[in-house]
């Protein structure tokens, strides 16, 4: 794991990506490309240090520009300084030393760009972006930093609290560390954690899962939530441990078990505490719980209640649909095989005169048919599924299938590439029910 506390001086600091004119940073003379090295005498290692030390109203900022040192005095007038920072370089990110038996990165097809194979296990990215970390490689200095700077919440890949089971799930790494004592320490320091359990049938289900949930609940409110998600298996598992996916019957039993635990936790913890991933409900063909059951959707982006939030937004928007469109319109709505039946029902009513919205489920041949979620679709699979079809005026694809920042699918093709291949305009739509309705209607100013 790369060292993060004693990097060479030349690499210290954070680099400014952009400065807005007329803001405190702009008036102080800071520019894009400046490497900020200190604030009020405190050295900056990364963006977290910057956030921690930049909270004062008066900032004495040390920076490097073109090999020369400079200083700027920034007077804060409001919450924003008016600058954005460059994201960390791959060499700055702490990578994962584990070899989890279910690791999705190990199941990627050959020939994909190297950056997709980077496995981060960096507490800073957990705090800043909600990435899940295992806590196995944290040095004492890093634990102290989390406590001192109150880096909360963190997102923790637990998988099992049984030390032996977890060690096997993590691929028997060189470093053996029991996770509960670390989480208990962070909880005592006031750090809130969201736990995740990737369920692998025959490995960490049954009594192992029950123990994990019980022991994590004992750390509440330090552990605020626990998410149980089914293992995802691609067809690219050469020389990897033999695993199997959760069956629909198992998913149904698991959902029932988790809902039983929720009923038990509510009177004692004041929260349901543990949730089943939306994928388990869809796999079991069980209705998604109502919005109130998700208690504010704290981990919706990880597939816990995302379907409910999307569905409710779509239904609210659908209640205000026009009776008819001023001119005929036809669209093709792309989604994964798992959610396609539900989306077809949702878009089927009510009907709008002059509008035809066709849901196109796309089989995932890139990763394998065992992957049915829309977020892992590639442009090649979408092109294959839609070839030769009447697509209408636009093809609507979910933004979840594109990587943030790059704006491309996992096969490195962009929406423009897909549009050329299909001969039809392609629009990227946020995973939001209201945004989808607006896109289906052809509106251009609705978060799309």
Fold and architecture overview:
- Helix content is 29%, strand content 20%.
- The chain is α/β, with parallel strands linked by helices.
- It has three domains: 9-85, PDZ domain (Pdz3 Domain), CATH 2.30.42.10; 93-304, TIM Barrel; 311-441, Rossmann fold (3-Layer(aba) Sandwich), CATH 3.40.50.
- Helix 13 (415-422) links the parallel strand 14 and strand 15.
- Helix 8 crosses helix 9, helix 10 (306-318) crosses helix 14 and helix 12 (379-386) runs parallel beside helix 13.
Features:
alpha/beta; Pdz3 Domain; TIM Barrel; Rossmann fold; six-stranded antiparallel sheet; five-stranded parallel sheet; globular
Specify the biggest β-sheet. 6 strands, antiparallel
Number of strands: 15
Number of helices: 14
Residue-averaged pLDDT, rounded? 89
For the record, the CATH class of the largest domain is Alpha Beta
How many discrete domains?
3
First-last Cα distance: 39 Å
The radius of gyration is 24 Å
- CATH architecture descriptor name of the largest domain: Alpha-Beta Barrel
Topology:
Elements lengths: L13 E6 L4 H4 L7 E5 L2 E2 L3 H7 L4 E8 L2 E8 L7 E3 L37 H7 L2 E2 L6 H9 L5 E4 L5 H7 L9 H10 L4 E7 L6 H12 L5 E8 L17 H22 L4 E3 L1 H7 L21 H13 L5 E13 L3 H9 L4 E10 L16 H8 L7 E5 L16 H8 L3 E4 L3 H9 L7
Parallel strand pairs: 7-8, 8-9, 9-10, 10-11, 12-13, 12-14, 14-15
Antiparallel strand pairs: 1-2, 1-6, 2-3, 2-4, 4-5
Helix pairs in contact: 8-9, 10-14, 12-13
